[in-house]
User: What shape does this take?
Amino acid sequence: MSGAVARVCMVVAAAILNHPLLFPQENATLPEQDEALVTRMRAHEELMRAHEERLAGEQSRLEEEEEEEEERRSRLASRLRQSDGRSDEAYSWYFWSAVSLVVFLAVEVSRVDLADAETWAKEDEDTCPGTGSVGSGAPVLHKGLLSQFCDRCLYTSAHENRRVREFVEGFADDLLESMRIVCRAEAHVELGDFLGVGSVFEAWKVHKPLTCDLIVPFTPPAPYAFQYRLWCSPASLVPPDLQGFAAIEVTEKNRGGGGGCACDSAVVGEDVLCLLHGNAAGLEGAERGADDDLLCAGGTSSLSKDRVMRWFQISVSKAWGRVSHKYDFQLAFRRLDAAGALKVRFRSGKVLAMNLIPAVQLDDTDAYFVSHFPSDAGSPPDAYWPLSLAVYEQNLLKHFARTLPENACHLHCLQILTFLHKKQTALSGESALTDYHLKTVLLHLLLLSRQPASWGGGSLEQRLRDALAFLRRSLREKRLTHVLVGNRQLPRDLGVPEVFRAAEPINLFRPLVLQRALHADAVRHAEEMLRNAPALIQEYTPHLVNGVVRPNIR
Assistant: This one.
């Protein structure tokens, strides 16, 4: 019992001792500490919540960026697929374009027959529609009109040409013989026989006044000789813009071997023209090297065109003074910038033109280097002489005369072309186009022709259309090659020197390439000539009215 009471008492005592009210000083700071801890806990909780919100925002932004990147990738893949499709189409287009170009070039190269000129005419119509000329499907000129023009105009011109040739050949023989006497006495230069070249001697000249071109070759006296530096020779020094020219050097053969010089053998007081030393006005008191009298350019051994022409003019004047009493007409120089541009005026008032052209023969060939071309408007350097293959061109026309039908129309075609060109020049003025270009066009067509019968008299209209189409095409391409230089299609029996056959072709339209204004003017001239062709032919064609020939010329 006492043990139980003792335990109860111990429990009561422990409860009393552990009551908080018994120790108020020790537990006074607990509530304040709890509040500070709660405050820190709340701040930490807010900080954690802010970090959580920031992390959630960054995660959402990353998810959006990933979605945008995926969308961009899908769009890029789509564009690449479309690009691949278009590239395949482009490559296919380029391939078929290349195939088409190759086929076109093959067709162009293979078209060498004369009948292709008709196709060129059709192409010209597509390129330049509305001209009313060769490109149109309708005939340019009526066959009957062309026939009347040839019968009444061209045949009359041919008869007059024959009479003029006979007169010129007789007069030129007499004048040149007198010139030989003058040259032997003063210059010791040998003159050869003249060669008639050009339209009058090829029987296609229709212009008035008739102009006769005569090449007069000359050679130096012993011990001199000519050496040629051709534009087409290896290591040539001729400028590239002077295709078809050559420099001619005067050299002494057997120099120092006692051959001597022409002025060394002159009599005292005799006025001798030496090719290298100039005027030896007597051996006493004469100082050699007078530049005014040399036939070579000053200080060089190059033959000078200007000094040769001046010497030639003086010789012609002296020669005419010796024979003028035998003729009943006047003779004068038409141009002072040409060596022998003469004008014969008869008492009846008729006028005849002559061109005596001093020339140097190339070895034993029929090629000549001339002082000038009668139709030349330019002024090449004095030391370079232009090449003339006029003799071979004349022989080529004779070759075609033997192979074509008896009544071939090629010369009539050329006469009509030059007639149209002359009349258009009178209407609109000079241009770069010349009669020689038209002659070259005709010769090219003749060489391309595989059927000689297509040049019969009844085919004049079609051949005229072909020639006009060829001319138009050449002007459009700015290319018309010399018919004899670099042309392997020439007949072998023509005898053109191999050095010219193997040379690069010469583009006669090269000035048109270098000068746009000149090309535009030539094209305009040709287009107007083609447009006016029917009217010009009809205007100058005589016609019959009640059996009487009534010309339309006003």
